[in-house]
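Help: why these numbers?

___
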Amino acid sequence: MKSYLLSRRQRHIRAICFHNIGLFKTNGNTKSITDHGDGFVPCFFILESIRGELLYISEVQSDSLQKLHFQELPKLNGASTMIILKLVGKVPKEILRSIVSNKNTTIDDKWCILCTYTIDLNKLQPISEDATLITSVNTPVLELVDGSYTLPTENVELIREPTSLHKRNISEIKIKHSLAYSSLLKLNKLLEYSSQVHEEMNELSTRIEDSFPLHKNQHQWYIKTVQKSITTLQTKINKKNIEMSQFEDNDTIHHSKTEISLVSQDESINDDYGSIYSRFVQIKDRLDQLKIKKLYQLIGIFRSTDLFDIGKGYIRFERSSSLDNIIESLKLKTLHIESLFKKAEESSKQREHMNSQLGYYLLFLHLTATQIFKLPLPYKLMYYGSTSVIEGQYPLYFTDSMITKHQTKLLRAMHYFNADILQIKQFLENYCST
């Protein structure tokens, strides 16, 4: 049987059945089942994706041990070529009691996983269920849209050749095609009718074109509109030229007056230069004092957090007597990536504390750079509490289950965050107030 699917996927599975149901790996020996039970094993199967996501759980069937059929699967929407198939069977309590050493304990029937298969749908071998014999225990047979398939490792024995359709021998008699006289007359009438309809359509189209003169003289209408636009543009150009000539005449008259006024203005500017500069220096000094005051207020607000803790914090600040030494006494620390990852593995409470501390540190730097000193940073900081983000896509927080993708993004976020810290440190070290 030749398959017509280029790549088999989850959505192509229609039904699943199992051959030679057995509780033990004894090549189909069902002696233990027949001795301790009614001869049938209640079973159902579980279908999962390769990531472990549950796709389908079948109903319970127990009507046969040789070939156990299940209902047709609902339509699956997955595009993956890999699935995980599990067969779950109900082990009778008599068999469990025979295995257990203590015979007096009360044991009930238990559901156990009899077999688990990780199946690549593109590596299955096609079979014909009517013409093949399957000898292995708990062998799955998957019915896809293009036929039945089983595992590539299973030994399949052919009982007989699969039945094929009977092909009729093609006759060698040459058939001469002929036409009756009546059919030829009908064909002639149809051709005459179609030609008449075509002529009438041509006449109607010419009449319609004659009734609309704009269609015939359409190019003349375009020419007229272009000529009108040219004339309007020429009138506008003439008006502009007249206005320009008037401005040039006025400029020559007032030229001498402007030279005299410019000389007097230069003298007044030279006189007022010293006073204007001193005013600018005073304004800048007041602005610097406001910035330092805002920074001191921001430090006071974040004192309640653990950012300024000597052992665990990221910011070191020594109290100073004057406001001028606040910037010098403020020391920012960069993130030590290896120690942070070691601390995150200790407990979930430790991870939550670290995430909130990183969020506060990001908020402090963001307010210092954008709101106080108007300092541009190389990477954009976005505060979202304990789940803050850098550049809108790199998370600066730890999770309970650290996936490799999240871990790589977290490492990049820490490197970007350290670059922003170095930028602010260099600015504060070189900052000089008037």
Q: What stands out?
A: Residues 282 and 434 are 9 Å apart (CA to CA). The mean pLDDT is 82. The longest helix spans residues 218-301.
